[in-house]
Design goal:
Two copies of one chain form a homodimer. Chain A contains 18 helices and eleven strands. Chain A has about 425 residues and is of the alpha/beta class. Chain A has a single domain, classed as nicotinate phosphoribosyltransferase, CATH 3.20.140.10. Chains A, B: This is Nicotinate phosphoribosyltransferase.
Chain lengths: ~425, ~425
C-alpha cells in the first residue's frame, strides 16, 4: 500500500538535501572547534576547497545552481534540540560534559557563514572566510556535498535495475571486506569516511553493516549524526588544521618552531586519556619528535597520517623507547589511505608491540571503484583546508611531499625552520 | 514516515503466503490443461513430488506444519476476475482467445484438489490424486512452495545486513550474467525458472532485471502471473507429461509406440506456428524421429530437454534435412540445465544454421550457489511428475538415463518397444 501522504510530501521538496544536520560532521571538528572557540575565537581564517585530482573536472560534472542550493540549505541548518541534548548529555571517550556550556550555547546559535563560489577552468573555487570557529565547521559538509553531487551526476543516466545492481555490488564489496576483517583478533577499527563518502545514506549503511559484521572490533564512527542515530561511539581527536593555523600566526621563526607544541599544550589543558593523541607529521615527523618536550612522551598515542605507515609506527615505537616509555601501553592510530590489505598487514606487523587502531576512510564509505563504465565513481582526492589565518598563508609539509601545501616560498621557509630534509613521495589516491 | 495501517495489516497475516495466484504457474501447464480438459477430462492421475537430490533432507529443513499451511492456502485460491480477463483477452503467441470459453469457465470455478503429505526418512511424500486437468495444476505451485520454504529455512538465522548482502550478491551475480549475454547478437531468451525459483519476489526481480538489461533479447517468462503484471509475453508449449500419460493409457505395445504421435496430433488440432514445438526425448529422441510421420516435419521447431544439447540440435538439423525441410526456417529451443557459458556456446554453434532460442530456468531464478556457508542455498533437483494414469505407472526415459523414471520392469518394456539402445549418462544438477 502506498502511503499517499508520504509520497506527496517527498515530491514537495525542491531539492533532496545532502547535509541535513550541523552534526553531520566529524567529531574532531567539534573538539577542535571548542578548543579554537576558547583559545582563538577572533582569528580570521580562509578555508578553501582543493581538488587534488585535476582530471575530475567537477564544475563540468556538477551544476553550479544545484551546488548553491545545497550550500544554501546547509546555511539554513541550526543545531536541533535533540542534537544539543546529545552533545551535552552523552559520554564521549568516557567523559561526561565534554562540551562546555559556553561552547554549547554558542553552537546552539550558530549559522554557518557565507560561502564564495566561482567556476574556474572546469573546477569550483569554493572558499569560506570569517572567524575560525565558524568557518572551520564548513570543511566536512562542503566536502560531503561535493562528493555526493558528483555521485548523483554519475548516477543520473542509469536505469533502475542498473542502479540497484550498482548498490548491490557496492554492498557486496564492503561485505567482502568485513569478512576479511572479521577473523582478525584484537582488531579495533572506526569509520573516518564522512568527508569523502559516496552519500550520507551509503555511509550510514556501511556503518550499520560494520556494526553487525564486526561487532566489538568496530569501535565507532567519526560522524556525530550517525553516532547519535546508531548509538555508537563518536571517534576523533585533532587534525593538521590546528598546527597549520597556530604556525601561520607565529611572529618569528622561533615561535614557528614552537607552535606545534603550543597546540598540544592547549589541547592537554582540556583532554585526557585516548584524546591525548599526537599528530606529528604536519611539518615533518622526525624533527617534531626529536625536538618534542618531555611531557609529550606521556601522551597516550600517535596518529600516523602520511608517509609509509609502517615506518611511521616504527619511528613512534623507537621514540617512546628513547623517552623511557613502554610502547605496549601506547596507541598508534593509522588513518591514511587505508584499505583491507593494508589494515591486515599493519595489524599483523604491530600486534603486541603497540596498541593499534585504524581510522578507515574513503575506501570504507566510497569504494565504488571498478563498478561503473569508465570508473566514473572511483574515489578521488578532495580536501578543504585552512589556507590563510589573519591574512597569512598556511603551510603543511607532512611526511609525503605530494601532500604538501602552501606558497612555495613559505614551504621553503618551513622546511628550513623545521629542518626537514629529503622526503620520499607517496602517490595520493584519496 | 511509517504507514501504521500497513504495518499492522502485515502483522495480522498468520503466514506469508508463497503462491498467491492460480496463474503463478507456467504457461504451458495452462495450454496442456486445456488440451487435457478437451481430450482426457476423466483420466485419473497421481502426481508425486520427487527429490532427485537425496542429500537435501527436505523434511528436516522444512516444518511440516508450515508446508501444510502453504498448501492449504493454495487450495483456497481461485482465479481472480483480473486474471480471467487477462487469460481471455490477452494475445498469446500472436493469437487472440487462446483459451476456449468452456475451459475458462471450468478454470474460473476450479479449486485445486486435496493433497496427501507424509514424512518418510527425512523426505516429504507429497502426492496429488484426481482428474488429470485438476491434479496437473498442482505441479508448479507445489514445487515453488517447497523451494521457497527451503530458502526461508536457510535464511532464518541470518542477520539483517547479512541478508541484504546475500541478495546484493545474488543480484550482482545475475547482472553479471546479463552483461555477458547483452552483447550476443540475435539472442532470444525466456525465463523458464518458476518451478525452482528461490522465491516469487526473486523471480519477479530477475525478470525485471532481464527486461531492463537485455531489452528485446528477453522474450518473456513462462510465469503467467509475472507475464501479466509486467506486461510481457507468456512463453511455453508442452511437456513430457502429455506423452507419459498417453503412453500409460495405451492398451498394447503398438498403441504405446504410437502414443507420442497421438499427443502431437491432438496438439496440432488446436495450435499453430511457434506453438507447434516437438519435444522428442520422452522415450528416446532417435527412435522418435526415425519413426515420425511426415506431417511432423512440417512443425515449427523442437525443444531439446535432455542429453547433450549440441548433439540434440545437430540431430534435429539432420532430421529436418532428411525430411526435405530447411533448418534455417526451423526453431530449436534449448531448455535443459542452462547457464550463461552454455547459452553463449550453443548460440555461437547454431547461429545461422537454425533459429535458436533458450528457456533459462534454475540458474536464472535460483543461482545462490556459493553465496552461503555450506552452500545451503545451492539449487537442487526437485520435480513433481505424473507417476500413474488410470492406475497404471508412467514411464519417462529421456536421452539421459539419470533422468529416467518409472518401475524398472516398465522401463525395460518401454526401452524394448521404443528400441532405445545404449544411452550416455549426464549428471543431473537441477
Amino acid at each position: 500500500m502506498v502511503d499517499i501522504a508520504t509520497r506527496v510530501w517527498n515530491h514537495k521538496w525542491k531539492i533532496d538535501p545532502i547535509v541535513r544536520s550541523l552534526i553531520d560532521t566529524d567529531f574532531y571538528k567539534l573538539l577542535m572547534c571548542q578548543s579554537v572557540f576558547r583559545n582563538h575565537p577572533n582569528t580570521q581564517v580562509t578555508f578553501s576547497l582543493i581538488n587534488r585530482s585535476k582530471s575530475i573536472r567537477l564544475a563540468e560534472l556538477i551544476d553550479e545552481g544545484e551546488l548553491r542550493e545545497q550550500l544554501d540549505n546547509i546555511r539554513s541548518l541550526r543545531l536541533t534540540r535533540g542534537e544539543s541534548t546529545w552533545l551535552r548529555g552523552n559520554t564521549f571517550y568516557g567523559k561526561r560534559q565534554m562540551f562546555r556550556p559556553d561552547f554549547m550555547e554558542w553552537f546552539e546559535n550558530l549559522q554557518l557563514p557565507p560561502y564564495h563560489l566561482e567556476k574556474v577552468d572546469g573546477q569550483f573555487e569554493l572558499t569560506f572566510e570569517g572567524s575560525w570557529p565558524e568557518v572551520m565547521l564548513w570543511e566536512i559538509p562542503a566536502l560531503a556535498t561535493i562528493m555526493e553531487l558528483r555521485s548523483r551526476a554519475v548516477l543520473r543516466d542509469m536505469g533502475r535495475f542498473e542502479l540497484q545492481v550498482l548498490y548491490a555490488r557496492g554492498m557486496t564489496k564492503l561485505w567482502e571486506k568485513v569478512e576479511q576483517l572479521r577473523p582478525i583478533e584484537g582488531l579495533k577499527l572506526a569509520d573516518f569516511g564522512t568527508r569523502r563518502r559516496h552519500s550520507y545514506l551509503w555511509q550510514d549503511w556501511c556503518v550499520q553493516a560494520m556494526m553487525e559484521g564486526l561487532g566489538n572490533s568496530f569501535t565507532g564512527t567519526s560522524n556525530c549524526r550517525i553516532a547519535m542515530m546508531r548509538e555508537i561511539e563518536a571517534i576523533g581527536t585533532n587534525a593538521h588544521e590546528l598546527p597549520m593555523v597556530y604556525a601561520a600566526l607565529a611572529d618569528s621563526d622561533a615561535a614557528l618552531l614552537q607552535s606545534p607544541y603550543d597546540v598540544l599544550s592547549d589541547w592537554q589543558d582540556e583532554h585526557d586519556g585516548n584524546l591525548k593523541i599526537i599528530l606529528p607529521d604536519t611539518f615533518g615527523t622526525k624533527g617534531f619528535l626529536d625536538r618534542a618536550p618531555d611531557w609529550l612522551a606521556d601522551w597516550t598515542g600517535m596518529r600516523i597520517d602520511s608517509g609509509d605507515p609502517a615506518t611511521g609506527a616504527e619511528n613512534a615505537i623507537n621514540w617512546w623507547k628513547s623517552r623511557g616509555e613502554d610502547p605496549t601501553k601506547k596507541l598508534v592510530i593509522f588513518s591514511d589511505g587505508l584499505d583491507v590489505d593494508k589494515i591486515i598487514e599493519l595489524q599483523r606487523q604491530f600486534k603486541g608491540r603497540v596498541r593499534v587502531s585504524f581510522g578507515w576512510g574513503t575506501m570504507m564509505t566510497n569504494d565504488f571503484k571498478g563498478l561503473t563504465t569508465g570508473d566514473a565513481l572511483a574515489p578521488f582526492s578532495l580536501v578543504c583546508k585552512a589556507i590563510k589565518a589573519n591574512g597569512r598563508p598556511t603551510v603543511k609539509l607532512s611526511d609525503n611531499p605530494n601532500k604538501a601545501m602552501g606558497p612555495s616560498e613559505e614551504i621553503a621557509r618551513y622546511k628550513r625552520v623545521f629542518e626537514v630534509g629529503e622526503q620520499e613521495g607517496v602517490e595520493v589516491v584519496v
